[in-house]
Amino acid sequence: MSKKLWLHSSAILDYKYYVLAIFIKALLIIPLVFSAKEVTLFTYEYLVENFEYTRVHGFSHIQVMFMFTCTLFIVSDFSRYWLHRIMHSIPILWEFHKVHHSAKVLTPITFYRIHPIENLLFGFRYALSAGVVSGVFIYLFGAMIGVVDILGVNIFLFIFSLAGSNLRHSHIKIKYHNVLENLFISPYQHQIHHSSKYPHKNYGGYLAIWDKVFGTIIYSKEVKTIRFGVAVESFQTLSNILFTPFISSYKLLGKYNAK
Description:
The protein is mainly alpha-helical. It is built from ten helices and no strands. The termini are far apart.
Protein backbone atom coordinates (compact mmCIF):
# COMPACT_ATOMS: atom_id res chain seq x y z
CA MET A 1 0.00 0.00 0.00
CA SER A 2 1.14 3.54 -0.68
CA LYS A 3 2.47 5.95 1.91
CA LYS A 4 -0.64 8.07 1.33
CA LEU A 5 -2.85 5.25 2.64
CA TRP A 6 -0.67 4.51 5.67
CA LEU A 7 -0.71 8.20 6.66
CA HIS A 8 -4.40 8.80 5.93
CA SER A 9 -6.31 10.33 8.87
CA SER A 10 -8.48 7.21 9.05
CA ALA A 11 -5.40 4.97 9.29
CA ILE A 12 -3.84 7.19 11.96
CA LEU A 13 -7.05 6.90 13.99
CA ASP A 14 -6.77 3.11 13.65
CA TYR A 15 -3.22 3.20 15.07
CA LYS A 16 -4.38 5.22 18.08
CA TYR A 17 -7.35 2.96 18.69
CA TYR A 18 -5.16 -0.14 18.35
CA VAL A 19 -3.15 0.93 21.41
CA LEU A 20 -6.35 1.47 23.37
CA ALA A 21 -7.79 -1.83 22.09
CA ILE A 22 -4.88 -3.78 23.62
CA PHE A 23 -6.05 -2.78 27.09
CA ILE A 24 -9.72 -3.26 26.24
CA LYS A 25 -9.13 -6.79 24.96
CA ALA A 26 -7.07 -7.66 28.02
CA LEU A 27 -10.04 -6.72 30.19
CA LEU A 28 -12.65 -8.47 28.03
CA ILE A 29 -11.02 -11.49 26.39
CA ILE A 30 -9.01 -12.97 29.28
CA PRO A 31 -12.16 -13.58 31.38
CA LEU A 32 -13.78 -15.20 28.35
CA VAL A 33 -11.06 -17.88 28.30
CA PHE A 34 -12.36 -18.95 31.68
CA SER A 35 -15.98 -18.72 30.56
CA ALA A 36 -15.16 -21.09 27.66
CA LYS A 37 -13.82 -23.53 30.23
CA GLU A 38 -17.06 -23.21 32.21
CA VAL A 39 -19.14 -23.87 29.08
CA THR A 40 -16.97 -26.94 28.38
CA LEU A 41 -17.55 -28.36 31.87
CA PHE A 42 -21.28 -27.59 31.76
CA THR A 43 -21.66 -29.28 28.36
CA TYR A 44 -19.70 -32.34 29.48
CA GLU A 45 -21.64 -32.71 32.75
CA TYR A 46 -24.98 -32.23 30.97
CA LEU A 47 -24.18 -35.00 28.48
CA VAL A 48 -22.99 -37.38 31.21
CA GLU A 49 -26.11 -36.80 33.31
CA ASN A 50 -28.67 -37.01 30.49
CA PHE A 51 -27.27 -39.56 28.03
CA GLU A 52 -25.85 -43.04 28.33
CA TYR A 53 -22.11 -42.58 28.69
CA THR A 54 -20.33 -44.55 25.96
CA ARG A 55 -16.73 -43.67 25.17
CA VAL A 56 -15.74 -43.75 21.48
CA HIS A 57 -12.65 -45.87 20.81
CA GLY A 58 -10.51 -46.66 17.79
CA PHE A 59 -9.08 -43.21 17.06
CA SER A 60 -5.56 -42.00 17.71
CA HIS A 61 -4.85 -38.74 19.51
CA ILE A 62 -3.84 -37.12 16.21
CA GLN A 63 -7.07 -38.23 14.52
CA VAL A 64 -9.19 -36.93 17.39
CA MET A 65 -7.39 -33.60 17.42
CA PHE A 66 -7.82 -33.30 13.64
CA MET A 67 -11.57 -33.92 13.95
CA PHE A 68 -11.76 -31.53 16.89
CA THR A 69 -9.92 -28.78 15.02
CA CYS A 70 -12.10 -29.13 11.91
CA THR A 71 -15.33 -29.25 13.93
CA LEU A 72 -14.38 -26.23 16.01
CA PHE A 73 -13.39 -24.31 12.90
CA ILE A 74 -16.70 -25.03 11.13
CA VAL A 75 -18.91 -24.38 14.17
CA SER A 76 -17.02 -21.20 15.03
CA ASP A 77 -17.21 -19.89 11.46
CA PHE A 78 -20.94 -20.67 11.25
CA SER A 79 -21.66 -18.83 14.50
CA ARG A 80 -19.42 -15.95 13.37
CA TYR A 81 -21.45 -15.62 10.14
CA TRP A 82 -24.75 -15.35 12.00
CA LEU A 83 -23.59 -12.98 14.70
CA HIS A 84 -21.98 -10.78 12.04
CA ARG A 85 -25.21 -10.79 10.04
CA ILE A 86 -27.25 -10.00 13.16
CA MET A 87 -24.93 -7.07 13.93
CA HIS A 88 -25.92 -5.67 10.52
CA SER A 89 -29.62 -6.50 10.81
CA ILE A 90 -30.55 -5.19 14.27
CA PRO A 91 -30.37 -1.36 14.29
CA ILE A 92 -29.00 -1.01 17.83
CA LEU A 93 -26.27 -3.58 17.21
CA TRP A 94 -25.48 -1.95 13.87
CA GLU A 95 -24.68 1.27 15.74
CA PHE A 96 -21.80 -0.58 17.42
CA HIS A 97 -20.68 -2.57 14.38
CA LYS A 98 -20.76 0.60 12.30
CA VAL A 99 -17.49 1.56 14.01
CA HIS A 100 -15.67 -1.17 12.09
CA HIS A 101 -17.21 -0.05 8.80
CA SER A 102 -16.37 3.61 9.32
CA ALA A 103 -12.74 3.26 8.18
CA LYS A 104 -12.21 5.26 5.01
CA VAL A 105 -9.05 3.32 4.12
CA LEU A 106 -8.19 -0.26 5.03
CA THR A 107 -4.93 -1.37 6.61
CA PRO A 108 -4.25 -4.53 8.64
CA ILE A 109 -4.74 -2.41 11.78
CA THR A 110 -8.34 -1.70 10.71
CA PHE A 111 -9.10 -5.23 11.89
CA TYR A 112 -8.88 -3.88 15.46
CA ARG A 113 -11.29 -0.98 14.90
CA ILE A 114 -14.02 -2.81 16.76
CA HIS A 115 -16.15 -1.37 19.53
CA PRO A 116 -15.72 -3.03 22.96
CA ILE A 117 -19.38 -4.12 22.96
CA GLU A 118 -18.83 -5.97 19.69
CA ASN A 119 -15.62 -7.46 21.07
CA LEU A 120 -17.61 -8.72 24.03
CA LEU A 121 -20.36 -10.25 21.86
CA PHE A 122 -17.91 -12.01 19.58
CA GLY A 123 -15.92 -13.16 22.58
CA PHE A 124 -19.02 -14.75 24.10
CA ARG A 125 -19.84 -16.28 20.73
CA TYR A 126 -16.47 -17.97 20.56
CA ALA A 127 -16.57 -19.02 24.22
CA LEU A 128 -19.95 -20.65 23.62
CA SER A 129 -19.04 -22.41 20.37
CA ALA A 130 -15.59 -23.53 21.60
CA GLY A 131 -17.01 -24.62 24.95
CA VAL A 132 -19.82 -26.72 23.47
CA VAL A 133 -17.56 -28.40 20.89
CA SER A 134 -14.89 -29.06 23.53
CA GLY A 135 -17.45 -30.49 25.96
CA VAL A 136 -18.85 -32.85 23.33
CA PHE A 137 -15.39 -34.10 22.34
CA ILE A 138 -14.34 -34.65 25.95
CA TYR A 139 -17.58 -36.59 26.47
CA LEU A 140 -16.92 -38.72 23.38
CA PHE A 141 -13.14 -39.19 23.61
CA GLY A 142 -12.29 -38.42 27.23
CA ALA A 143 -8.68 -37.71 28.16
CA MET A 144 -7.66 -37.60 24.48
CA ILE A 145 -8.77 -33.96 24.59
CA GLY A 146 -7.07 -31.86 27.24
CA VAL A 147 -7.00 -28.18 28.19
CA VAL A 148 -3.59 -27.71 26.56
CA ASP A 149 -4.87 -29.22 23.32
CA ILE A 150 -7.96 -27.00 23.37
CA LEU A 151 -5.92 -23.87 23.97
CA GLY A 152 -3.47 -25.01 21.29
CA VAL A 153 -6.27 -25.19 18.74
CA ASN A 154 -7.45 -21.75 19.84
CA ILE A 155 -3.97 -20.39 19.19
CA PHE A 156 -3.93 -22.10 15.79
CA LEU A 157 -7.23 -20.44 14.85
CA PHE A 158 -5.99 -17.13 16.22
CA ILE A 159 -2.95 -17.24 13.94
CA PHE A 160 -5.18 -18.25 11.01
CA SER A 161 -7.44 -15.29 11.79
CA LEU A 162 -4.59 -12.82 12.08
CA ALA A 163 -3.08 -13.83 8.73
CA GLY A 164 -6.43 -13.70 6.94
CA SER A 165 -7.36 -10.36 8.45
CA ASN A 166 -4.14 -8.79 7.23
CA LEU A 167 -5.09 -9.63 3.67
CA ARG A 168 -8.76 -8.75 3.98
CA HIS A 169 -8.18 -5.35 5.51
CA SER A 170 -6.11 -3.77 2.79
CA HIS A 171 -6.47 -2.15 -0.63
CA ILE A 172 -4.77 -5.11 -2.31
CA LYS A 173 -7.37 -6.79 -4.52
CA ILE A 174 -6.67 -10.50 -4.03
CA LYS A 175 -9.44 -12.43 -5.78
CA TYR A 176 -10.22 -16.12 -6.19
CA HIS A 177 -11.93 -17.96 -9.02
CA ASN A 178 -15.71 -18.15 -8.64
CA VAL A 179 -15.53 -21.85 -7.78
CA LEU A 180 -13.15 -21.15 -4.91
CA GLU A 181 -15.16 -18.11 -3.79
CA ASN A 182 -18.11 -20.44 -3.27
CA LEU A 183 -16.02 -22.13 -0.56
CA PHE A 184 -13.75 -19.46 0.89
CA ILE A 185 -14.13 -15.71 1.32
CA SER A 186 -11.37 -14.05 -0.70
CA PRO A 187 -9.70 -10.89 0.63
CA TYR A 188 -11.41 -8.85 -2.07
CA GLN A 189 -14.82 -10.28 -1.16
CA HIS A 190 -14.34 -9.00 2.37
CA GLN A 191 -13.22 -5.64 1.01
CA ILE A 192 -16.49 -5.56 -0.95
CA HIS A 193 -18.29 -6.12 2.36
CA HIS A 194 -16.52 -3.01 3.70
CA SER A 195 -17.76 -0.90 0.80
CA SER A 196 -20.50 1.64 1.33
CA LYS A 197 -22.59 -0.09 -1.36
CA TYR A 198 -22.42 -3.76 -0.30
CA PRO A 199 -22.20 -3.92 3.51
CA HIS A 200 -24.94 -6.58 3.56
CA LYS A 201 -22.98 -9.04 1.44
CA ASN A 202 -20.17 -11.50 2.26
CA TYR A 203 -20.65 -11.84 6.02
CA GLY A 204 -18.49 -14.96 6.18
CA GLY A 205 -15.27 -15.05 8.16
CA TYR A 206 -13.31 -17.71 6.27
CA LEU A 207 -15.95 -19.92 4.62
CA ALA A 208 -18.16 -18.52 1.87
CA ILE A 209 -20.47 -21.54 2.13
CA TRP A 210 -22.80 -19.75 4.55
CA ASP A 211 -23.15 -16.73 2.27
CA LYS A 212 -23.82 -19.06 -0.65
CA VAL A 213 -26.47 -21.07 1.21
CA PHE A 214 -28.23 -18.07 2.77
CA GLY A 215 -28.14 -15.81 -0.30
CA THR A 216 -25.72 -13.10 0.83
CA ILE A 217 -22.78 -13.85 -1.45
CA ILE A 218 -21.34 -11.53 -4.06
CA TYR A 219 -18.34 -12.48 -6.18
CA SER A 220 -15.21 -10.47 -6.83
CA LYS A 221 -15.84 -10.29 -10.56
CA GLU A 222 -19.18 -8.54 -9.95
CA VAL A 223 -17.64 -5.45 -8.33
CA LYS A 224 -15.03 -3.38 -10.16
CA THR A 225 -14.58 -0.38 -7.85
CA ILE A 226 -15.05 0.12 -4.13
CA ARG A 227 -15.56 3.13 -1.93
CA PHE A 228 -14.86 2.44 1.74
CA GLY A 229 -16.42 4.05 4.77
CA VAL A 230 -19.90 4.14 6.34
CA ALA A 231 -20.91 7.08 8.57
CA VAL A 232 -17.31 8.32 8.43
CA GLU A 233 -18.26 11.74 9.81
CA SER A 234 -19.51 10.14 13.05
CA PHE A 235 -16.19 8.51 13.96
CA GLN A 236 -13.39 11.04 13.74
CA THR A 237 -11.88 10.63 17.22
CA LEU A 238 -11.29 7.96 19.85
CA SER A 239 -14.12 9.34 21.97
CA ASN A 240 -16.44 9.14 18.92
CA ILE A 241 -15.58 5.47 18.47
CA LEU A 242 -16.20 4.65 22.12
CA PHE A 243 -19.24 6.78 22.97
CA THR A 244 -21.15 7.58 19.76
CA PRO A 245 -22.69 4.07 19.48
CA PHE A 246 -24.10 4.39 23.02
CA ILE A 247 -25.60 7.80 22.25
CA SER A 248 -27.07 6.58 18.94
CA SER A 249 -28.49 3.46 20.59
CA TYR A 250 -30.08 5.55 23.34
CA LYS A 251 -31.76 7.73 20.71
CA LEU A 252 -33.03 4.65 18.88
CA LEU A 253 -34.49 3.25 22.10
CA GLY A 254 -36.20 6.59 22.66
CA LYS A 255 -37.82 6.35 19.23
CA TYR A 256 -39.00 2.79 19.92
CA ASN A 257 -40.46 3.77 23.29
CA ALA A 258 -42.21 6.77 21.69
CA LYS A 259 -44.06 4.39 19.38
